[in-house]
Amino acid sequence: MKRIAVIGAGYVGLVAACCLAKSKFEVICIERDQDKINQLVKGIIPFYEEGLQELLVAGLESERLKFSQNFADCKGLEVLMVAVGTPSQVDGRVDLSQIYQVMRDIKHYDLRPKVLVMKSTVPPGLGEQLKKRFLANSECETAYVSNPEFLREGQAIKDWYFPDRIVLGGDFPKALELVESLFINISAPVVKMDVTSAEMVKYASNAFLATKISFINEIGNLCELVGADITPVAQAVGMDRRIGDQFLKAGLGYGGSCFPKDTRGLDFLSTLKGHTFNLLKAVIEVNTRQRILAVRKLCNSLGSLHGKKIGVLGLTFKPDTDDIRESPALEIIKFLLDEGAQVTAYDPMANISKLNSMDFNLCLNAMSAASGCHALVLATEWPEFINLDWGAVQKEMREPFLILDGRNSLNAQNMSVLGFQYVGMGKL
Ligand SMILES: NC(=O)c1ccc[n+]([C@@H]2O[C@H](COP(=O)([O-])OP(=O)(O)OC[C@H]3O[C@@H](n4cnc5c(N)ncnc54)[C@H](O)[C@@H]3O)[C@@H](O)[C@H]2O)c1
C-alpha cells in the first residue's frame, strides 16, 4: 500500500487527496492554514466543489485520509505530491514562493520521498532548476515528476476520474510508472515526456483555451460592426469538429485562478527568454478590453454612470464554483464604482469572505439586487439567473430597464417583449 503526502489543501490538493484516499491509498494532506485543517478534520470543505464533501467524509471515516500542518508527518512516505498555489505577481511573473517554501521544508525535514510529484502549474524550466537546487545530492534519491493538473473547478471530481489525458514528465521510467500507478480505475491515455515539456503542456493548453475565448470575443466585436449575431456564428463555427464548440462563447472574457495568471506567466517567460509572443499578448489585451467594452455598452445606453443604480448578477468567475479570483464581475464592479455608479450584487455561491472591502451592496437574492436599478448586468450564467421570473424583475427596476447580458445566456426577444432594453455581447 502506497502512502502519499499531498501538500496544499486547495482546489487541486484537496481533490487529489480525497480521490487518492478513495482509491485506498493512505494519504496525509499537509496544509499550512490551521483554520482550514480545523474545518477539514470535521468533514467540512473550505470551498465549494460538487461531490467533494462526501469524498472528504468517506476518507476521514476510512481513516485513510489525515490532515496535518506538520511536514515531519510526511517522513518515510513514498510519494510527495505538491499542489500549492502559484499566483501572479503584479508584473505577470509567477510567484513561486509557496513552491520554494515546500522545497525548503522537504530539505529541512530530510523527507526523501521516492518521488516528488509536481501538480502545481509552474513555468517550463522550473522543475529542472528545482531538481538541481534541492534534490541533487548523492544521498537524496528522490525522482522529480511533473504531473500537471487539468481539472476544472465545478467538475473537479469528474475530471479526476475522467481526464482527457494524464501527462507525466520525468527522467526515470520507474518513477513515471509509480506515479501512473496512482491513477487507479482511470482509463485515460498517459503521455510521458521530459519535465520541461510536461510543464509546457499545461501552459500551452491554458493559453490555447484562452485564445479561443479571446478569438470568439473579437469575432463578436466585429459582428456588432457588420450587423451579425455571434450566437449562431459561434454555434456553426463550433460544429466544425476541427474547431469544437467549447470555449467558443462570446462574453465578458475569461477569469478565474488559472487562465489569467497562466497567460500572463507564459507571456512573462517568453519575454524573459527573448521571444515576443505577440499572439498571447493580443489574447490578454482582448480579454482586458472585453470588460471595458461591457462598461461602455452601459454608458451608451445610460450616458454618465454617475449616480446610476446598477445591479450585478453573479460574482464568481463561472457557475458551479465559489471562486471569485480574477472574476470579470468584480473587475466590472470596480469600473462601475470608479464611474460613480451605485452597485448592488448577488451571487448564490460566491466565497464572499475573499471579497476585499469593495464599496457595493451585497444582496440576499437576485430580486433585491435588481430593485430600483437602471441597469442589470448578467455577469455569471448561474442557472437560477437564466430561470428567473424576468417579468417580476422588470417590475422591480426603473427606466430604461437595461439588461446587459454579459454571457449571452438570455433570450433577447423574450427580454424585449418583457419591456427590457436588451444588450448582449457580439450582437446588435
Ligand atoms: N484551481 C484550479 O482550477 C486549478 C486547475 C489546474 C491547476 N491548478 C494549479 O494548481 C495549483 C494549486 O491551485 P489551487 O487552486 O488548488 O490553489 P489554492 O490557493 O486554492 O490552494 C493552495 C493551498 O496550498 C496551501 N499552501 C501553500 N503553501 C503551503 C505550504 N508551504 N505548506 C502547506 N500548504 C501550503 C495554501 O494554504 C492553500 O490552501 C496552482 O499552481 C494552480 O495554478 C489549479
Question: Would you mind describing this structure in some detail?
Answer:
- This protein has 428 residues and is α/β, with parallel strands linked by helices.
- The chain folds into two domains: 3-192, 3-Layer(aba) Sandwich (Rossmann fold), CATH 3.40.50; 208-423, Rossmann fold, CATH 3.40.50.
- Helix content is 42%, strand content 13%.
- It has helices spanning 11-22, 34-40, 52-62, 97-108, 126-135, 156-161, 173-180, 195-226, 230-238, 259-272, 278-302, 328-338, 366-370, 383-386, 390-396, 412-417, and strands spanning 3-7, 26-30, 65-68, 79-82, 115-118, 143-146, 166-169, 190-193, 309-313, 342-346, 361-362, 375-378, 402-405, 421-423.
- The strands form three sheets. Strands 3-2-1-4-5-6 form a six-stranded parallel β-sheet, sandwiched between helices.
- Strand 5, helix 5 (126-135) and strand 6 (143-146) form a beta-alpha-beta unit.
- The longest helix has 32 residues, at 195-226.
- The chain is globular and about 75 Å long.
- The model has no long low-confidence stretch (mean pLDDT 96).
- The structure holds nicotinamide-adenine-dinucleotide.
- Nicotinamide-adenine-dinucleotide binds next to helix 1 and helix 4.
- Nicotinamide-adenine-dinucleotide (NAD) is lined by residues 7-13, 30-33, 36, 83-86, 98, 101-102, 120-121, 149, 151, 153, 257-258.
- This is UDP-glucose 6-dehydrogenase.
- One of its GO terms (molecular function) is UDP-glucose 6-dehydrogenase activity.
- The active site is at residue 258.
